Amino acid sequence: MNRTFNAALILSIVLSLVLTACGSSTNGITNNEKDVTLRFYSYILGNAVAGAGAQKLIDEFEAAHPHIHIEGVPVPVGDLLSRVQADTAAGTPPDVAQLGFGWMDLIVNGLGAVPLESLTTTDDWNKNFEGFSAKGLELGKYNNQTYGLAFTFSTPVLFYNANLFLKAGLDPEKPPATWQEVEQAALQIKSKTGAEGFHYSGLSPSTGDWIVQSLIGSNGGAVLSNDRKMLQFDSPEAIGAIQMWRGLVDSGAHDKMNDVEAMETMSQGKLGMFVMTSAVQGSLLKGAKGTGWELRAAEMPAFEGKATKPTNSGSALFILSKDTEKQKAAWEFMKFVTSERGYTIITSEIGYLPMRTSILEDPKYLKEWAKENPLIQPNISQLERLTPAIAYPGANFSQISTILMNAIQSSVLTNANVAKRMQDAQVQAQKLMP
């Protein structure tokens, strides 16, 4: 009897321990947690180069959080905001969305984004963001609350073709550091090799005006006053920056292509220098490998005697769900993709900056990769001088940006009077300000 009882007791204890073990994990997931599905709208998911890295983020998160499923919805960047607006109006907003910093006013006031501090404690918040770029974190704030978490992030980088430099008699170890040097190098490349010399992005609507803001800011200007009431498209600094750009075109140093055409030409090895977001690095490397040339990178060129003010491109993650369980799950997803492991994938497989730069020195993450991929260094260096891209206030932010971009395109690529064109844009856009 006792032997039988003891055996039954031992079996009961063992079964209890097994069931307890099965119902828990190091992730804190229990068998009481409900399955949650999050719809995630993202423009990088559908990208031929970046999409695989984005999917890897999702796959690894789901493996670590089996009760949370991420339904990734690829949306072209040009359609993203209108898609989110339409779905929100229809009562079916995405739970999480990858959106631009420049849309912050609308995202908070029009789409009802959730302040992230409301989803955690102050201690947990501080612990989670220890080592995270303070400037990057600041970009997601609106009225002193964080609504967007910096996700994919880059600055303007000067990519250049080392083979064309050598062929033109230039030293690829000494890329141009000023706009005057860019002009000289571009003209030399054009005359010695027959390739196009240089292209500065901002001549296609899809690029956005963030990179134009960087050029204007580096000349001492800004597109908006500090009190956010007056646009400054017609300031001497803004006009001067665009006149410099136009001068590069007039001299023949700068091509007359739009940004898409320039990207294709650079990938084919037929363009010497190209300033663009570091996000195109993967595509350029693929093109360089396919056509047999060496891609290198340098910091954005400067106006003589002035420090550059690189602005950010990229996006933040926003929680738009009104369901509290989904909000909690979305916060877990956001923490994972912006963790050390998340940024290891984002940087090495997608091409954006790590907001946790310590991983570049950590052998568990990107130390060896960083040694083998020096193209990341200019982007990292510029992070220290980062100037946030300005989000225009009010509901007409998109139209204001379009007016500026149209003015710049005509100023740079036609015989239009630059000062007059920028002044006209100022008058037209100021009428749309709140």
Characterization of this structure:
The strands form 3 sheets. This protein has a 5-stranded mixed β-sheet with strand order 2-1-3-11-6. It has a 4-stranded mixed β-sheet with strand order 8-9-7-10. With 434 residues, it is α/β, with parallel strands linked by helices. The model is unreliable at 1-31 (pLDDT under 50). The protein has helices spanning 2-22, 51-64, 77-89, 104-109, 122-128, 134-139, 162-167, 179-193, 210-218, 236-251, 259-267, 281-291, 324-337, 340-350, 367-372, 377-383, 397-413, 418-430; strands at 36-42, 68-74, 96-99, 141-142, 145-146, 149-154, 156-161, 196-200, 271-277, 295-299, 313-319. The protein has 2 domains: 36-154 and 313-383, 3-Layer(aba) Sandwich (D-Maltodextrin-Binding Protein, domain 2); 156-311 and 392-430, D-Maltodextrin-Binding Protein, domain 2, CATH 3.40.190.10. It has 18 helices and 11 strands. The longest helix is centred in the first third of the chain and has 21 residues, at 2-22. β4 (141-142) and β5 (145-146) form a beta hairpin. 44% of the residues are buried.
Please provide a brief summary of the model:
By secondary structure, this protein is α/β, with parallel strands linked by helices. The protein is 46% helix and 13% strand. Strands 2-1-3-11-6 form a 5-stranded mixed β-sheet. Strands 8-9-7-10 form a 4-stranded mixed β-sheet. A two-stranded antiparallel ribbon has the order 4-5.
